[in-house]
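We treat protein structure as text, and this decision shapes the records that our systems exchange. The remainder of this section carries one protein's record, kept here as part of the documentation:
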Amino acid sequence: MPAAYARSFARSEILEHERVVTRRGTRLVHAEICSGSPDEQVCVVAEDRPGLLVLVTDALLVHGLSIRNAKVFRRLRIDGRAEAVDFLQLRHSKSDLGVGAAELGAFLQTLSELVAEDMLAASRPSAPPPSGSPIARVYFELDRRGRDDATLLVEAPDSEGLLNAITNALTAQHVHIQACEVRTDHGVAHVRFELVSSGGQAFNAVRFCDIQQAVHAALPKYRR
């Protein structure tokens, strides 16, 4: 697991996560509510692939669920396969209620079908935010830039389909999401992506600019 994972969880939580990951077995997707976390978190484990995070958000939308907070990680298994391990705090889109076992099972079934069919749903249009909404920002952490990895920060009005739009843009730019953290505060989504380069393309000033412009253009049509 990346270093950001070890910084985010206590040892007792890590041991619980290990058991959840092991219980995935050979299934395409597995999900459980982590009992050892101080806040209720759903752990989603799946074989990593381009667009997986988009499929997760689409499956949530189908069942009227949204993400309150998220930490998304990518690890290499012993067999060399890449595996996504995502920790999601979920809520109903129209309330702050948590998620029960039945709803988690329905979400898991939908996500499994989407992954099996390898279909990426189209981004859903978002209603324009009220006047006076904050301006969207897309920028890199200057002190974290490297040839093979980078940290991208996005601040934008929170809405359905926002994470979908950003991850689609990053996939089109041929970068992998190594880790992701999402926080919403007073209607504003703060998203932090740890990116790694793919296909032997090193990060440089030109590529940073291309990625930044692509993500900015993909955001719903807010004040930007």
User: Anything to note?
Assistant: The chain has two domains: 3-117, 137-218. Helices lie at 3-8, 11-22, 52-62, 101-117, 162-172, 205-218.
